[in-house]
Specification:
It is a single chain. The protein is an alpha+beta fold. The chain has a single domain, classed as N-terminal domain of TfIIb. Helix content is about 15%, strand content about 20%. The termini are far apart.
């Protein structure tokens, strides 16, 4: 059995998780899951990804979540 650290994520879970803002895949970087599009970094706390945009770390060069939202508008469900 593989030992898990508080910041590890099950590979199967990582495969299905998507960024709530852009819908892009996520990659595991240290204590965060980072969106491939947009670059929001969602924290991992006690082994659980916190997939709230308001809790995510902004990428370099982006001054606010509102700016990032304007750059990556949500797709409408049709």
């Amino acid at each position: 059995m593989t030992e898990r650290t508080p910041h590890s994520i099950d590979p199967e879970l990582l495969d299905i998780l998507r960024c709530p803002l852009t819908g892009s895949r996520l990659r595991h970087e240290g204590d965060f899951l980072v969106a491939e599009v947009g670059g929001l970094a969602y924290p991992i706390r006690d082994g659980f990804p916190v997939m709230l945009m308001e809790e995510a770390k902004l990428p370099a060069g982006v001054e606010s979540l509102e700016v990032l939202k304007a750059r990556h508008p949500r797709r409408s469900a049709t």
